[in-house]
Amino acid sequence: MPASGTGAQRLRPIDWVDGPEGYLRLLDQTRLPGEEHYLRIDNVDALIDAIRRLATRGAPALGVAGAFGVVLAAQRLPAGDVPAAIAKIRSARPTAVNLAVGTDLAARALADGGLDAALSAAKKLRDDDILACAAMARRGADEIYRAVASDIRADHRPTGTGPRPVKLMTICNTGALAAVERGTALGVLSEVLRDGRLAHAYACETRPLLQGARLTAWELQRMGAPYDLIVDSAAASTMRRGYVDAVLAGADRIAANGDTANKIGTFALALAARYAGIPFYIVAPETTVDLHTASGDDIDIEDRGSYEIVSLAGVAIAPEGTTALNPAFDVTPADLITAIITERRTIRTGIGQRPDA
Prior knowledge:
Elements: E1 14-17, E2 23-27, E3 38-41, H1 44-52, H2 59-76, H3 82-90, H4 97-113, H5 115-148, E4 166-170, H6 185-194, E5 198-204, H7 211-223, E6 227-230, H8 235-240, E7 246-249, E8 253-255, E9 260-263, H9 266-276, E10 280-283, E11 289-290, H10 307-310, E12 311-312, E13 315-316, E14 329-332, E15 339-341, E16 346-347
Helix pairs in contact: 2-3, 2-4, 2-5, 4-5, 5-6
């Protein structure tokens, strides 16, 4: 239970390094929390491998990676091979819409203006993500303060005077590691910490790859936030016992009706939050809203196979021959979401407002 703090130095896990032949610099998240190792990604195959094995991950970061992947393809490959390489990047992971959005953005720039235009478009997407995350953080923090202002449960009353601190829960990793800087849902939590109003954070471990335990706890510790790690199955009871004021989650795709796809287990958190009577927020950039996907039923959910479930760090934890259902994401229906918070707006899907409103 680390002590509270006010933040840490800037973390940028994905960035472009300029040069005669530029390259992507990625923090290899598969090595965290034990080692901070940066990868030099200078070809399309290396980028696709990094995306598929989750060395880089998170919807906003994948969009930026896709855009710079187009630049790598145009730099390194014969012109005739570029379209196929772009298609491979675009489809490296199917659920997160940002990967396709970023890839398509840079591909259009490449077609219209060549390599320099594609590089400019990718850099602009990177910079826009930084601004979007800052805007989401402020909007989300203010929304939480409004939501808890009328909460008068005795066990949540503040001591002394002034605005009361809040206790927040989150799942998976939605911080700087999932973006360019700051992040989405965890970015909101960091803003609450900066405001001096974070009483405590609860990070779900997020099985099977433990992004909460390995990555979110690492970020929370790095920013000096007071937190506890909990097993996923403890989330509902933690809410029920009154330990949580609001739940924050990210999204990899937001359908036109407000349904959202996020890390497996998010749906269960939304159900528990509804039962406990606390707000449940999705925090994601506008680029994650996919108006071409009508509802959550139309979202392609990635299944990552049995290995991640039946083994842990390469050690078998299930009988040989065991197979597993391993969806990486689930869909939370819009009516369980208090609001979707983007850099531009707060969409109250729980009362029937649509993301295209």
